[in-house]
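Why do we care about 3D structure at all? Because function follows from shape, and shape follows, mostly, from sequence. That is the central idea of this module. The next example makes it concrete: a single protein chain, its amino acid sequence, and then its structure expressed as tokens.
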Amino acid sequence: MTAAALHELGVAALGRALRAREVSSVEATRHLLDRLAAHERLGAALALAPEAALAQARTADDRRAAGETGPLLGVPIAHKDIFVTRDLPTTAGSRMLAGYLSPFDATVVARLAAAGTVTLGKLNCDEFAMGSANENSAFGPVRNPWDPARVPGGSSGGSAAAVAARLLPAATGTDTGGSIRQPASFCGVTGIKPTYGVCSRWGMVAFASSLDQAGPLARSAEDCALLLSAMSGFDPRDSTSAERPPQDYHAMLLQPRAGASAARPLAGLRIGLPREFFPAALAADVQGALQSALGVLESLGASLVDVSLPRTELSIPVYYLIAPAEASSNLSRFDGVKFGHRAAHYADLADMYAKTRAEGFGAEVKRRIMIGTYVLSHGYYDAYYLQAQRLRRMIADDFQQCFALCDLIAGPVAPSVAWPLGAQDDDPVAAYLADIFTLPASLAGLPGMSIPAGFAASGAGAGLPVGLQLIGDYFAEGTLLHAAHAFQQASDFHRRSPAPLGAAGAR
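And the structure:
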């Protein structure tokens, strides 16, 4: 196999090539490290570890030579810089943690390493995972490889952009209100947010503890299934971890449905279409791509069912009360005392706190801390935070009523394709509104994923990817991945990649 073809391989394909001894992990690792270094302009990588990565690759090759097998053994990946790592700095995209080295690896990082993956480096993200565009990183924005003048989505934009640009086959991400699904949609890759509690949060820099969840971004549903199988599972160190036995999501993805056939692999699957997910304001190009994708699902045997999620619009105010409140509490630890940035000049302890936090946090993080502190303050806790939690329960109940009528829910990931860099600098609320279709599932703790479903056909965003969102009931990741895999077997959107930076069109 030629080196030029290595970066075109996804996780499953590269795993097969490694097992067949068509390529070594060292060769693949060296090739991808070179690509990451050559594409600095994309802004996707924050730190690379060439020597450590090559050492891991040699170990993987030795394990395979000794007879060990495994679908991820020797496969190079990278981690969103929200997961702590011993051998690489963890910044969470913030000056507050610039240069911070953790004494331990996050559970997700450790489990993927145990499965044999090679860690190439850490990937850029919105500061403390707060953002929908990956413009809030203290170390510069990430650019969308389909159009470098546009955002890749956030907060896992570095992960999505690196996978889309074929800099690596897969990456980890986190999803609090859509931060895996939205960048996956904007960059034309596949991403899944599992049920809350499926992946351990131990070692994940906390934003909103009742919402944060780890998940993979990759080329295909099959690739995501392989990664999710390795990174998920109960962790006694995480009090929110779901006590469930290990799951083989790859086997679930391939297992045929009862009554299905090769021509109709989704026979009997009911897909709900909430009327609130298809408003008149939905961009025409997004609407067109989704309708075509739904037609493909129908041709595969799925039936489409009209359902309703009447509190969809309330998900925005509910989320932007609960998430900032939890962020205000979680980020109080960054005070310059034990670790992280500390102001160089201050008069007393209170002045050190104030200057440290003013210097270390960016504008969006400060905005959310202030909102969260306000809604948790005396006299406002009952009026805002508790009311938001009651509405959150109602939003979750709406989903359960839908799942009495259908197996999965489908709709858009975002109201539009990726917008230009800087377009929302003066209007942060506009970015909040773009989360309307991803927030409900996050608030309910449900699994959801984005799969490439087409491209905008006209207008300023012509040629940009459009994602189809699929949402399942609790712990229905297998059903989600099976449906996504069937769709990808019948389409090629997930196989298309952007042209190299500086060129035009797809390659």
